[in-house]
Specification:
The complex is a heterodimer of chains A (357) and B (304).
Chain A lengths: L34 E7 L4 H12 L6 E7 L4 H12 L3 H5 L1 E5 L7 H9 L4 E6 L3 E2 L3 H11 L4 E16 L2 E7 L13 H4 L10 E4 H5 L13 H13 L1 E14 L10 H16 L9 H19 L2 H5 L1 H23 L4 H14 L3
Parallel strand pairs in A: 1-2, 1-4, 2-3, 6-9
Antiparallel strand pairs in A: 4-8, 5-9, 6-7, 6-8
Chain B lengths: L10 E8 L4 H21 L4 E8 L10 H11 L4 E6 L5 H10 L6 E5 L3 E3 L3 H9 L4 E9 L21 E5 H6 L13 H11 L3 E12 L13 H17 L3 H12 L3 H15 L27
Parallel strand pairs in B: 1-2, 1-4, 2-3, 6-8
Antiparallel strand pairs in B: 4-7, 5-8, 6-7
Helix pairs in contact in B: 1-2, 1-4, 7-8, 7-9
Classes of the chains: A alpha/beta (357), B alpha/beta (304).
Chain lengths: 357, 304
């Protein structure tokens, strides 16, 4: 392990382990692409997969390979994906490999893609996320400046729904604009409790896969990306590029990973925490004083929770919580309704106001 | 006046106005366009596709051997004819598009920005939409930064179509005289065209399943970044559209806002006042209010 004083500091960014061999091996094999893009799909939403592939087709740099892993047993679905790929132009197809992976859980296609990848860095794209034209360029440029580090770009979140216009299904109907909801800077401690880095917004250096053997846990129904991110950040350190290069599309109508269910989310979270507890945790510089500060705040909170005042006001809090919960459920039900009288009125009022020239 | 009974779309002219674009980016977008045309020819009534570039740059983007190589590539990919015209003048997007459309003998015209990549099935979907004889303009959905304007979820009808990726029935385009290049140099020409097509009886529809990748850089709020010139032309077009579509209250609001606005808006206001003094403003269109929408500072109700 390198002397900590010599290691470049990445604020909150994880503390890299490993010696010289941990740095990028680029230049040893110049035939390797700069980036491997692993696209995961089940082959059941071809329209959105088409859009994800279109984003890759429109990239400003071409020194990347795409490994499209179709996670299905169905030959028909795989054929459908292959037909979709055939509809793209020749040059894009030449840099794309389509593979079928029939077994395993949610992470199996990602691990299968890792086995096939050759790039100096690996990035991941789900079939319902979108990236800007400089997504590849951002990671490649950052890799040249910070070889061997894990890389993070900024990601926006947009809420989407499924919709049909007449007889034709559209892959997404955006109901909220892309918004900046994820933390601007990578904070390792914060990431131990809450993932602020969608899978399409971080890049893993080659040695983390080939030499450290990092893989996604296949038994996790969700949060497999979070688990991988923590280990990669710990092993390689994380560098923020601060460029917005992707949009994570959050299904407002329980599609995508939201369909997994609350219980599975809770179990996955516990499994990740247990796994991280099994080995020493390497924390970035500055963590000791932050943990001490957090500990002091936790002790202060505990004193409040144990106080008589808190106990006495318990019933009042429970009533307020019930009211808030009812309000939340009502708002959620309202959002799910296609058209409500109030919405119709508001739409009419906007049209009326627009007519007042 | 309703459009005449329209035939199915069997021929298409794809026209792209260039201005100092990177030649490699133009090539990549052209390849994606050719691939999408091939799919459209397999799946729809489309039989013939032509690609034509109009170059408003000071030196040709597709100069030297670049154009012959691209032309050969497009023809090999199934494009019936590929053309490139160096205008040797900056005509603006409206003027450039009109110049290219003047030669169009096809059933429809697809107006594309040079930094727009059609998805493989996207041109097919626009052709299918335009095969409805009531539709004058069909617009694709831009990704990754989607335009927030609303559209009817049953019919796809929308207030206006974006000139970044709009397919127009040639007869509808000609019937209204094409883009108004006199008043709309760079922005607002698509809104104006859309509203005049609608005034003439044609529908404007949004086709969300037709994805077009538009290379834009998002700002911190997820909106496309805009340059000084873009904001200037946007501001000027707001004033001119409010004037043309007979919206005096909206116009008054814009004039007040731009007087206290940022430098591009103030510059646009100055130009508008000069045009007003010289009697060069577009006259209000009869019945313009029937189709125009001014919602806040936008031309349609926005979903987000």
């Amino acid at each position: 392990m390198k002397d900590a004083e010599q290691e470049p500091r990445t604020p909150g960014g994880g503390f890299p382990v490993g010696g010289e061999g941990a740095m990028s091996t680029r230049g040893i094999d110049s035939a390797r692409p700069a980036l491997s893009v692993i696209v995961r799909t089940r082959g059941d939403r071809l329209l959105s997969l088409e859009e994800a592939l279109l984003c890759l087709c429109a990239q400003s740099r071409h020194d990347f390979e795409t490994i499209l892993v179709v996670h299905t047993e169905s030959a028909a679905r795989f054929d459908g994906v292959e037909r979709l790929v055939d509809s793209f132009d020749d040059r894009f197809r030449a840099r794309l490999r389509t593979v079928q992976h029939a077994s395993g859980g949610r992470s199996a296609p990602l691990n299968a893609g890792l086995e096939l990848s050759r790039g100096d860095y690996v990035v991941f794209l789900d079939d319902d996320d979108l990236v800007t034209s400089d997504w590849v360029e951002t990671f490649v440029e950052a890799a040249a400046i910070h070889p061997g580090r894990a890389l993070r770009a900024a990601c926006l979140l947009a809420r989407v729904r499924r919709v049909r216009v007449g007889e034709i299904a559209a892959p997404f109907h955006r109901v909220s604009g892309p918004a900046r909801v994820y933390a601007e800077d990578f904070d390792f401690l914060q990431h131990l409790t809450d993932n602020q880095t969608p899978i399409c917004s971080f890049a893993v250096p080659r040695y983390a896969i080939s030499e450290l053997g990092l893989r996604f846990r296949d038994d996790l129904p969700v949060l497999e990306d979070w688990h991988m991110l923590i280990r990669v950040a710990q092993a390689c350190g994380m560098v923020d590029t601060h460029r917005i290069t992707s949009i994570y599309q959050y299904w407002d109508d329980d599609g995508g990973s939201q369909e997994v269910g609350r219980a599975n989310w809770a179990r996955a979270r516990e499994a990740v925490a247990l796994d991280l507890d099994l080995a020493p945790l390497h924390l970035p510089p500055g963590s000791a004083s932050r943990i001490a500060s957090l500990q002091q705040r936790a002790l202060a909170a505990e004193r409040v929770l144990n106080s008589t005042t808190w106990r006495v006001l318990g019933p009042v809090r429970r009533v307020l919580d019930s009211v808030k919960s009812v309000g939340r459920r009502a708002r959620a039900r309202w959002r799910r309704r296609k058209v409500g009288p109030l919405r119709r009125f508001r739409a009419w009022w906007r049209r009326r106001r627009s007519a007042r020239f | 006046m309703r459009p005449s009974v329209a035939r199915r779309i069997e021929s298409l002219q794809i026209q792209i106005v260039l201005f100092n674009n990177d030649v490699e980016a133009v090539r990549r977008a052209a390849r994606a366009t050719a691939a999408a045309c091939r799919v459209a020819q397999q799946r729809t009534s489309l039989a013939t596709a032509i690609v034509t570039f109009g170059d408003c740059s000071s030196t040709p983007v597709l100069g030297g051997s670049d154009w012959p190589a691209l032309e050969a590539e497009l023809v090999a990919a199934g494009i019936a004819d590929a053309r490139s015209t160096f205008f040797d003048a900056n005509l603006g997007s409206a003027g450039g598009s009109n110049r290219l459309a003047a030669d169009a003998l096809t059933d429809a015209i697809l107006v594309l920005n040079p930094d727009v990549f059609p998805g493989p099935s996207s041109i097919a979907r626009l052709v299918e939409a335009l095969n409805d004889s009531t539709v004058g303009i069909a617009e694709g959905r831009q990704i990754p930064l989607e335009h927030p304007k609303s559209f009817d979820l049953t019919t796809g009808d929308t207030s206006w179509a974006s000139g970044a990726c709009m397919m127009v029935r040639t007869s509808a385009f000609s019937a209204v005289g094409g883009f108004d290049e006199e008043f709309f140099f760079l922005h607002g020409d698509d809104v104006d065209l859309s509203w005049r097509v609608r005034l003439n009886g044609g529908r404007v529809v949004h086709v969300p399943s037709a994805a077009f990748f538009h290379s834009k850089v998002p700002d911190g709020g997820g909106r496309p970044t805009t340059s000084f010139h873009e904001r200037y032309y946007q501001a000027l077009s707001k004033l001119l559209l409010a004037r043309r579509y007979d919206a005096p209250l909206v116009l008054r609001r814009y004039l007040a806002a731009f007087a206290a606005g940022d430098p591009p808006q103030q510059q646009a206001l100055g130009v508008y006042r000069r045009m007003e003094a010289e009697g060069d403003l577009p006259p209000p269109l009869p019945d313009g209010r029937r189709v125009a929408q001014f919602v806040g500072s936008e031309y349609a109700v926005h979903r987000f």
